[in-house]
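Section 3.1: Structural characterization of target chains.
Under the original work plan, the team committed to producing a structural model for every single-chain target entering the pipeline before any wet-lab resources were allocated. The record below documents one such target. The sequence was received from the expression subgroup and is listed exactly as submitted; it comprises 212 residues.
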Amino acid sequence: MGNFKRSEIMKKSVLFFMLLFPLAGVPAEETPSDKEQEFRKTLALLESDQFKITATYAYSSGGRSIPLAGNEGTLTVRDSVAEGFFPFFGRAYRLPMGEEGGIRFDGKMEKKQITVKEKRKNSSVRYKFRVKGLNDVYDISIEAFGGDYCTVYIQSNNRSTISYQGKVEPLPEPEERERGRVFFNQIFFLTLLPEKMCVPREGCVPLLTKPV
């Protein structure tokens, strides 16, 4: 009789642990809604045509990774105009004098196209357009999967293909840009003032007081 009771207790204990451990052993996964929310935010930003990309790495056609610290590439899209500068590393087929420094453009986007690939885990968006530089034409493709990071691919007539990795973010609000402009103008004006102003028969007085 005692053996029977012990056997029943052991069976119930084994059943209890079998039900418990599968629940405890499953790792907590990032909910699909979090990834979807990040992707939707990035998609809305690109579709707004109001964003800026700062590139921190370049990848030449040979696959070489080049950090761009202190020489970052930039791409600004405002409505239908794209303005950018990217340092270039690779083969140049023909370049006019004065254009050896990098890729520059500032003009109206042509053939703009936004393509969205919906997937269960990794949705992506590709933002493509063509823009004319001074003596070249650039086909630019931006690929993003959600979050801040993206990849920029640039093809042109005079240079080999190159890509860049960086962060995409919204343009500053007009009020922030205006505050920055006013602050810069104030600082620039103060640097032009003399340290003293002299008036005939009254001597010189300091214009800028320094903290003690």
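DSSP finds three helices and twelve strands in the chain.
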